[in-house]
Amino acid sequence: MQKQKKLALCFTLLSAVFMAAPVQANAPQQQQKLVIDKKNIKVWTYQSEKLPIFSYKAETIYHVPAEQAVAVVLDAVNSVEWVPYLGHVEMLSRNDQKGEFLLYMVLDFPFPLKDRDVVVKGKMYREKDGTIVIKNSVANNVRAKNPEYIRLTEYQGDWTFQPLGPSKVKVTTSGYADPAGSIPLSFVNMFVQQQPYQMLLRMRNEVIKPQYKNQDLPEAVQPKSGS
User: Fold this and answer.
1) Which among 181, 133, 127, 125 is positioned nearest to 153, based on CA atoms?
2) Nearest to 106, CA basis, from 186, 177, 18, 207
């Protein structure tokens, strides 16, 4: 039974490990189902007719400056330490002025399943109210496919960091990804709610680490002069 739970959690990573989904965030409130509400973390799931796999939205509050939480997510290489089943991350490119980046990720699946990989293009920016947003989607034809992995082609997502005070931030992440391959759809949807919960729970320990305090963020998400 424990092995089955571990395998199921791995499946759900595909809709949570990256950075999250606008289609879910914009879904009517009455269509969202609150499935987890504990330890100051809430998770909603949502399913549309066009997307067979559940999308999710999850949020929590951390008692650190918004920039400190952003620094954790932008430390992509270190994300393997707190995102379950994330085996490898490689920063292919990053333009701090434009707020654009390319990431290559490998998802470590347990035997006998084949590992997955994906190339993600991201865009980050700061809104007028100080909220920092990171949006992500699949980047096709950037890196040759590796026959050892199944390449993901259906993914989109975002993170938002809304300051609630000098040392308080509301973090929201929502996402959708099709894991591809022969994985039962009902099995993936059953556990999709658990992955964002576990991710935000683990992130809570990351945001308080000293290396993320007073870190210089990319120019694209720094406050504009006069704002």
Assistant:
1) 181
2) 18
Q: How do 132-138 and 41-46 pair as beta strands?
A: unpaired
Q: Angle 85-88-90 (CA atoms, 0-180°, nearest 5)?
A: 145
> What pLDDT does residue 23 have?
36
Tell me the CATH number of domain 2-219, given options 3.30.300.30, 3.30.70.20, 3.40.50.2300, 3.30.530.20: 3.30.530.20
Distances (CA, A) of 62 to 66, 71, 164, 171, 177: 9, 13, 10, 7, 26
From residue 189, how far is each of 13, 47, 51, 109, 226 by CA, in Å? 11, 10, 11, 17, 46
**How do the domains of the chain map onto residue ranges?**
2-219
64-76 tens-digit pLDDT: 999 999 999 999 8
- Rounded CA-CA distance 50/177 in Å is 13
Whether residue 156 is predicted with pLDDT greater than 80 in this model: the reply is no
